[in-house]
Amino acid sequence: MKSDNDVVITGIGIVTCQGVGKEPHIALLTGSQTSAPKVETERFKPYPVHPMPEIDWSTQIPKRGDQRQMENWQRLGVFAAGLALDDAGLKSDPDACASMDMIVAAGGGERDIKVDSLIVDEALKRNDREQLLNEKLTTELRPTLFLAQLSNLMAGNISIVHKVTGSSRTFMGEEAAGITAVETAFHRIKAGQSTHSLVGGAFVAERSDILLLVEGIRAHATGEWLPLWSRSSDNGGGMIMGSVGAFLVLESRVYAQQRGAHIYACIEGIEGDRGARDEGKLESRLTRMAKIASSVPARDTVVFSGASGVIDLAAREKSVLETVLPEATIRGFGGVTGHAMEAQFPLGLALAALSLDGAAKVPAFDPQNEKPMTAPAKHAVVTTVGYTRGEGLAVLSTEA
Amino acid sequence: MSEIRFKDHLGRPIVAVTGMGVITSLGQGLQDNWAALTSGRSGIHKISRFPTDKLSTRISGTVDFIAVPANNSVERSYAFARETTREALAQAGLSGDFGGPLFLAAPPVEPEWSDRFALADRSGPSQVEGDAYDRFLAAMRERPDAAFLEAVQFGSISERLSDTFGTRGLPVTLSTACASGATAIQLGVEAIRQGRTDKALVAATDGSVSAEALIRFSLLSALSTQNDPPEGASKPFSKDRDGFVIAEGAATLVLESIEAAIARGAKVLGVIKGLGEKADHFHRTRSSPDGGPAIATIRAALADAGMEEAGIGYVNAHGTSTPENDKMEYGAMLAVFGEGLKSIPVSSNKSMIGHTLTAAGAVEAVFSIQTMLTGTLPPTINYSNPDPAIALDVVPNAKRDATVGAVLSNSFGFGGQNASLVMTLEPA
Q: Would you call B215 an interface residue with chain A, using a CB distance cutoff of 8 Å?
């Protein structure tokens, strides 16, 4: 039953190694089969990463001065946010942007690798390291770098470039940032606290300083790219990061209808949770969360799993999904985009919405481990199981 | 059907504060902090955490008296929030699993330099210029270090708080720069108004002062360089103010629907009556010259509270002591309150505790409620050279007795962040 305060998706801004914008992603979701995605295997050897596609930044960030004030991570987010606003037909509506709420799922912490290298190399020769640090940071650090990588400045730059100023909130916490961002926007719209919201995030994989963090638990896959569910501990930890920007425009149904917006899909429900994962606790939590999908028929459902690729977690998630939604078709989208950390959950929703809207028979992303889809799905389940913590699950339905 | 007295002017559940905890450089706990704050004492001191030779700013309001297992931002921020949450829950009379959601304002974190140096020590020598991270990656591959990862995960503070206090669901970890604490309160209030929960735990913490953090703000010319004496550096609304003093701290508030609070016999300390926000698209670090977004933020908070300007009895100012903020904040308040501003006392806690950054909005909300509860206005200290362009009653240098029923607290931050809270003593 449709209701005025349904939360609907009306704008999609998406950038992955598959390309820029909706078209390449619709092609991915509606093709008869999937070809191996773009992978960069040399630059960060032995770690493969899914690179950013070629982007003409000026199409969404016209001022070069604005482009220069951001590191690639912020730039990619601002770019994808612009795509989503354009797609929703709101880019040219200054009043709508000025009253639009915004929640950005952000990481940050990009370093000036040259400066850091210079400091640690010099420090190897000295025993007054803290003094050295003061000297070098004071003279070598670019003052603008702080802002160019600061977590809440992706949102700040979206305000500056796209004039989205109703509110501006930045959520952090790896994958959970993206889950809680969508969850919060959903409940605000449901309760009438917001009529239209911009939600999403970005992640840039092509950075050794960022890759380093994850290698703290040896989470990266090594060597050649393998489909998501086909990875094994013979080749590292299983996770292949991807550069991704993913933003959504969410609106209440009534707000969207009043302005005649195209509705891709309706978000029926969403839940985030966390907790211990040992002794079957992850399984029982995911099983409980999946209950919000019990209102939709599983045989008409496609599951966009955001499994990070971490081998044990991916297997456990898949096994839960196959148990609780045995008739549904599962697609591990991180296999063809890379794991997008903060942006992973919004990315899953974007792909699900495009599939439902396009009545897609989504080809298997890992044909050895995913069954073919015989008819378009009417519903979608999107999951994200964080590579160290946090889980999210959303249920979407088609408008058709 | 809940009674009408539990609903606000828009029919939403009224949100009460039933527990508060706070840590600043002045000490641990609300009592000690309040005693220091009302006696006009400063917590700002010479930095001892790291050498400050050759730095233009050598003072801060670091919190150095809470034991941590390792010296990094995550451990400090977690420990501060754990302590303030214990205090707040005890005051609220709550024990066992909290059972409601957690909203945490936490600082963005990065590896500590000591960890980079340690990695360099166990890495191979440089092959080409600028290859430090390639070497670090090789060293990490050889010997992974889960503790290193945990210290740079933005989600690791809320994870531990959730486990320690038994909160429900997936916690929100957020950053809206210097408005973060206020945003966390806003999220807690919104969740209760949505009817999703009848209580929420809100914490804001910042233990991120390091040499690099200090230098970054220095390079943006944001910090005071009036190092001597340290306690004299933060002088909001003074003519010779020259920047903020970076500081640490934390605060926790237990929020409950007033209906649930009264039903369980909890003492209502105050009410979060209204919240407002408006983002600024003018510049990354500077506010719109006309103060438009800040004005809109304050007005939105008043409207959300269902109150007229004249209802506000005291303003807990953002008052950072930067030349720009204090001027902008004054202009915004003047636009909203007009002539009435002259008769509203406005003081800045930051004159004594410095700018606790991520924690500030929540720390100052706690002090705002305490102001109403005790009938004492904390002063703005170091006010000996008033800025003639800012005609405010800043409660100069000494506390003042005053009965206040409603407080406005402002928070403004880099990235166009603006949030204001209206708090009252009574629900209606």
A: yes
pLDDT reported for residue A314: 98
Is residue A206 exposed (0-12), middle (13-18) or buried (19+ Cβ within 10 Å)? middle
A81 lies in some domain = yes
CB B299 within 8 A of CB B271: no
Sign of the C-alpha dihedral, residues B331, B337, B339, B342?
A: negative
For the stretch A28-54, pLDDT in tens is 999 999 999 999 999 999 999 999 999
Predicted confidence (pLDDT) per residue in B59-105, tens digit = 999 999 999 999 999 999 999 999 999 999 999 999 999 999 999 99
- Domains annotated on chain B, with CATH: 4-112+152-420 (3.40.47.10), 113-150 (no CATH)
Q: What is the spatial distance between Cα B53 and Cα A130, in angstroms, rounded to a whole number?
A: 10
Query: pLDDT by residue (tens digit) across B231-275?
Result: 999 999 999 999 999 999 999 999 999 999 999 999 999 999 999
State yes or no: is B178 an active-site residue.
yes
Nearest CA distance, A349 vs chain B (angstrom): 18
Does A92 share its domain with A122? no
On whether residue A193 sits in a domain, the answer given is yes
Q: How many structural domains are present in chain A?
A: 2
Looking at the structure, tell me whether residues A159 and A217 fall in a common domain: yes
What is the chain B residue with the closest CA to A110? B110
Q: How far is CA A363 from CA A13, A18, A32, A346, A367, in A?
A: 22, 15, 6, 21, 8
* Cα–Cα dist B7/B11, whole Å: 5
A272 in contact with chain B, both atoms CB, cutoff 8 A: yes
Q: Is B148 helix (H, G, I), strand (E, B) or coil?
A: helix
Query: Are A128 and A273 in a shared domain?
Result: no
Nearest to B133 among A131, A157, A209 (CB): A209
Domain shared by A270 and A215, yes or no: yes
CA-based nearest residue to B5, from B304, B261, B375: B261
Domain that residue A123 falls in = 113-145
Q: Could you give the ipTM of this predicted complex?
A: 0.98
Q: A 117-156 residues with CB below 8 A of B? A: 117-121, 123-124, 129-131, 133-135, 137-138, 141, 143, 146-147, 150-153, 155-156
Whether this model's pTM surpasses 0.95? yes
CA dist A97 and A197 (Å) reads 9
